[in-house]
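Open question from group meeting: does this chain pack into something compact, or does most of it stay loose? Before anyone orders reagents, we agreed to write out a predicted structure and look at it together. Recording both the input and the output here so the notebook holds the full record.
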Amino acid sequence: MYGTQVNRLGKREKNAKIKEASCIFPFKYKWKTHNECFPTEKGPICATSVTPRQTLKTYGYCTDKAPSKPQKLTLRKKKNPKSRTQKKSTQLNSQTNKKKY
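Structure tokens returned:
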């Protein structure tokens, strides 16, 4: 069992109490010891970290498997790109160098 940030509505939640990790059983929550995921409005939760007394510290929404690791994106560098300021200064220089008749 694994705890994720994605609730049953498909929304990714970000707060200090949610942490993606393997579920820890048993855990204490609402003054009871739980050996399986605890049902909530947004989906069943499990402890992903606990205090020394096994009380839920952080949680995740229960899923059967861990998410796959995201692939790293490699950025390609452009060949000799001009910045916006270089382009503007080039345009200004070309306008001032024109002769007026």
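Observations to bring back to the group:
Helices lie at 84-96.
The longest strand covers residues 56-63.
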